Structure prediction request, 56 residues.
Amino acid sequence: MEIMRRLVQEEEGQGLVEYALIIALISIAAIVAMPLLGTKISNVFEGIKDKLIVPA
Prediction:
């Protein structure tokens, strides 16, 4: 019974779990944003490339 009581009272791993949840949330947000921003960023670079190429 003492083991169960200590498991409930201990909070040493709580910070680690909170950081892991934050990292997971940021990772999911980045994965979702990649396809949305990827095409826009690609279009911007294509436009820059087209302006830099000087016809000979």
About this structure: The chain is about 85% helix and 0% strand.
